[in-house]
């Protein structure tokens, strides 16, 4: 079972393999928020590309989350702060969601065999789930507006390390090797390592330090959101 | 003066800045071969995208180099082994060249303010040259068929480290930060670090270990090839 890492959705076409499972990664903060939402009882999420579509869901009475450039878009119910999803009122509910990068990555991978949502919050259960599937894996980093970003790549390295150490995965892929090296440098203090990353700086300006620290915490939410028929649901594990 | 790093020509559009200098990087082996050629007295090189164009040059009596997938294409005079260019017969000559990745990266950057050729073989003189220019820099890795590759990224990290340590460059760019981290892990033994990289394995199969070791040697060829009017010439330094 092979692992490949795609650093930006823009080049996903070079990696596409109809038999592989794609792990979508947008650590700050879409995939961390989605993982948190399911851990806190959200029933279903609808990934949406544009704000226009999101408005339509909102008009039809669906709870709708919308984030652009790190901030919640006015007029919607939620942004992509994970803390917004720790709310008993969302239990059993359907939430539509559109974000700057994460939901775009989900859309890019739509013809994969299976798409799962990865974050530090669910890394251990996710590794086991992927191992059971016995398929090749593509780690798809959402990046920032199609550019490489550090936190998604470091997570790809963390997950690849886990899969290769504990399970029978391997890689021939330079981006996976690079991600593993980055994780080696980062793992003793993720927050400190990512301190200079462009997105962490962007979010720090918005006073989101609490969000960042939470998103870099391991195994707080042992659930696996997967995409089925264009909807995000919780996998049975 | 800012540094950005673009890991593959396919996303160069996201980085393009008409005022910046682009450093094209294809360590194994196009930009190492080009640096070697000029150090050994080649007068001019013509970067060519397709084999068809290369055939036309050849027909017109121009010495022509053509490489695809690590091997010299039959019927041409040279491949992209740097050792092929250590030949007194090439002194003062014009050489047309097409390679799998390197010449494509040159073409992708064609509307930049200036394009220069980077390799470990000219890293010190190149850093000084770039510093004198007082412009933003884009480090454009040729990669492998539009995918990220390790040796080009490690070189980008080496050059960025040099520019930021000795000269007044800085970066806000996650890919530059990642490249610098990779170089930190690689610098004590480049050959060993790159041992598992996909392209090094590809070339090792072709028995090109001598080429690889040469391409990872610092400052053997203190010349700076630059692109002027679609031709590669030696900069006056």
How would you characterize the overall build of this protein?
The structure is a homodimer of 237-residue chains. Chain A is of the alpha/beta class. The first copy, chain A, has one domain (3-229): ComB-like (putative 2-phosphosulfolactate phosphatase, Alpha-Beta Complex). In chain A, 36% of the residues lie in helices and 19% in strands. Chain A is built from 9 helices and 10 strands. Chain A has helices at 30-39, 51-59, 102-108, 123-133, 150-166, 174-186, 190-193, 198-205, 209-215; strands spanning 3-6, 21-25, 44-47, 63-68, 71-72, 94-98, 114-118, 137-141, 225-228, 231-234. In chain A, the strands form 2 sheets. Chain A has a 6-stranded mixed sheet with strand order 1-8-2-7-9-10, sandwiched between helices. In chain A, strands 3-6-4-5 form a 4-stranded mixed sheet. In chain A, strand 4 and strand 5 form a beta hairpin. The longest helix of chain A has 17 residues, at 150-166. The radius of gyration of chain A is 16 Å and the shape is globular. The two termini of chain A are 21 Å apart. The model of chain A has no long low-confidence stretch (mean pLDDT 94). Chains A and B meet through helix 6 and helix 8 of A and helix 6 and helix 8 of B.
